[in-house]
Amino acid sequence: MTDTSTLSKQDPAPPELRAAWEANRMVPLWESPTAHKLEIEREQPHSWPWSVTKPILQRTAEIQSPKVVERRVLSLVSPFSKHPEDEFTCGTVCATMQTLLPGERARPHRHSMNALRFVMEGMGAATIVDGKDCPMEPGDLILTPGWCWHEHYHAGEGPTIWMDVLDVYLHLFLGTDDFQPGPVRDQTPQYDDIAFSTANILPGVDGHQREYSPVFRYPRADAWKALQNAPVGSDGGKKVRYVNPVDGGSVMSTLDCYLMAPVTGTATRPYQSTANTVCCVVGGSGYSVIGDKRIDWKAHDIFTVPQNLWATHYSDDPDTSIFMVTDREVYRRLGLLKEKLQD
Ligand code: GTQ
Ligand code: FE2
Q1: In angstroms, what is the span from residue 280 Cα to ligand 1's centroid?
Q2: CB 152 within 8 A of CB 106
Q3: 148 Cα to the center of ligand 2, angstroms
Q4: Tens-binned pLDDT, residue by residue, of the chain (343 aa)
Q5: CATH no. for residue 281?
Q6: Which one of 118, 130, 158, 300 is most buried, by most CB atoms within 10 A?
Q7: What's the total number of domains in the chain?
Q8: Domain assignment of residue 20, yes or no
Q9: Which domain holds residue 264?
Q10: Quick check: is 21 in a domain?
Q11: Measured CA angle at 189 (ends 130, 129), to 5 deg
């Protein structure tokens, strides 16, 4: 007779069956941690304060050069990234910090990955994107969409430091990561940004069916002006979106950018999303409560809002604004975007 109460506690798999599973690359689902949602460690917010990153970037600039390594870049790797080959900052979003010194260049190349630059410090550097010269001044957003040739140079004084954001993690997962070194060839013709610089009136752009904005440079002053003039939103803060003027959608298919500011002295209503966000403080200071963690921030700090955590932002400084890059479009296009505002 079999005693079922003791049997249920024993491993029902005899050693030779367990060995057969292993040898034949078969895994019992009932033992897989991903089948039991609750056992997975979920990503938590993390911050890289400027007071910490700036001296490290300065030290790094002394010992490494784009002449040797092409791009003097330090990736911001989430503490929840488990493997060196899938370095991510938050969800599918990958952020890095790049430093270029006066006189230096990073040679042209292109890749399938969508990328953007958000400038933190320095004057006189620029990125050339498919032949368009995009000056990089603090608070400017520069797009380098997938397969657009890009190179950086610095004709000013003092170091220029910016945050790069890429969708590389997604490409690695999808097997679509691809790269081409220069020299520049087969360059796609692009419109001048000036063609889209008048509000509410657009040039005809027949045949311009691309998965990215034809505008490659969004200057700080334009974004700041739009933010000042924006109405207070349903979360009690102000938020503007950087858009593709052709269709009013996100600037690129996988990266969606915003500039936000809490109303001075009032915390935004807690908001939750299936999407992931990397935040770069443009100016001012304040704090965010994300999940059960409080992150105090000021200018040039970078911090993350991982998916599914309630997030609220507070500032009593009227100069405050936060640049946000999200993978919201990835979720939206897959029908997986869920957003909630607390009642
Ligand atoms: O500057 O083109 O952080 O290709 C990672 C990959 C920057 C760049 C990064 C890149 C670049
Ligand atoms: Fe690149």
Answers
A1: 18
A2: yes
A3: 9
A4: 445 454 556 889 999 999 999 999 999 998 887 776 666 788 999 999 999 999 999 999 999 999 999 999 999 999 999 887 778 999 999 999 999 999 999 999 999 999 999 999 999 999 999 999 999 999 999 999 999 999 999 999 999 999 999 999 999 999 999 999 999 999 999 999 999 999 999 998 877 778 999 999 999 999 999 999 999 999 999 999 999 999 999 999 999 999 999 999 999 999 999 999 999 999 999 999 999 999 999 999 999 999 999 999 999 999 999 999 999 999 999 999 999 999 8
A5: 2.60.120.10
A6: 118
A7: 1
A8: no
A9: 47-182+216-341
A10: no
A11: 10
In a domain, 90, yes or no: yes
Q: Is residue 15 part of a domain?
A: no
Enter the tokens of residue 163.
């945050």
Distance from residue 313's CA to the centre of ligand 1 (Å): 30
Give the global pTM. Answer: 0.94
Least Cα distance to 281 among 305, 265, 309 occurs for 305
Ligand 1 site-directed mutation target among 120, 164, 169, 177, most atoms within 8 Å of CB: 164
User: Is any ligand 1 atom within 6 A of the Cβ of residue 150?
Assistant: yes
- What Cα–Cα distance (Å) separates residue 91 from each residue in 35, 172, 177, 261, 287? 19, 13, 17, 23, 21
